[in-house]
Design a protein that fits this description.
This protein is mainly alpha-helical. The chain has helices spanning 2-23, 31-40, 43-54, 58-71, 76-88, 92-100, 107-119, 125-136, 141-153, 157-170, 175-191. It contains eleven helices and no strands.
Length: 192
């Protein structure tokens, strides 16, 4: 409760800063405030979002972060955080849209995307998202391996095997994919 009081006070300070900065115009004598806002490059909004998140208000935190994400769509970490906040707020469809716009291929983020699809009630749609990522990087094994893993988790071992085999035909020297193909074949045998 004591910490929450500090967080509420910090939130009040960020809101006052943003309100004052919004009132600054070319004729306003407080030009230093406008310069400070420009130099912060949205850090006040980012910090406000973090305070709201700590207060257990993920929807408000996401709303505070939204303009910053729109202004810098290639900022991977900010995009990931935005999608996670939307998810915590129960706004799964919006979280999916945000997550699809994040140019990240790390396994943890792909797992998050898979979970979002499950929470939204359509886990199979992860396959479409991952196929788009494979199409964007057809000669890179990592997006393909993530697709194969998702297919196996969905019980579609034969589809995983077909995807891996197709990749190996195009890239015969990809040893990591060959190992995954063998694992997918083994999994397919276990499930038949």
């Amino acid at each position: 409760l004591f910490a929450e009081g500090y967080l509420e006070a910090a939130l009040g300070e960020y809101e006052a800063f943003e309100k004052s900065a919004g009132a600054v115009g070319s004729a306003t004598p407080r030009l230093e405030l406008a310069a400070l806002l420009r130099s912060s490059q949205g850090k006040a909004g980012e910090e406000r979002s973090r305070v709201l998140e700590k207060l257990g208000r993920p929807a408000d935190a996401a709303d505070a972060l939204a303009p910053l994400v729109a202004a810098a769509p290639k900022d991977v970490e900010r995009g990931k955080r935005f999608a996670r906040l939307l998810s915590l707020a129960g706004r799964f469809d919006e979280a999916l849209v945000a997550a699809r716009n994040v140019p990240a291929d790390d396994a943890e983020f792909v797992q998050f995307l898979f979970e979002l699809h499950q929470r939204a009630g359509h886990p199979e749609r992860i396959v479409d998202d991952l196929r788009e990522r494979v199409a964007a990087k057809p000669d890179q094994p990592e997006p393909l391996l993530q697709l194969a893993d998702a297919l196996v988790r969905l019980g579609r071992q034969e589809d995983a095997r077909a995807e891996l085999s197709s990749f190996l035909q195009r890239n015969p020297s990809a040893a990591g994919v060959r190992t995954r193909l063998l694992a997918a074949l083994e999994a397919a045998q276990d499930f038949s």
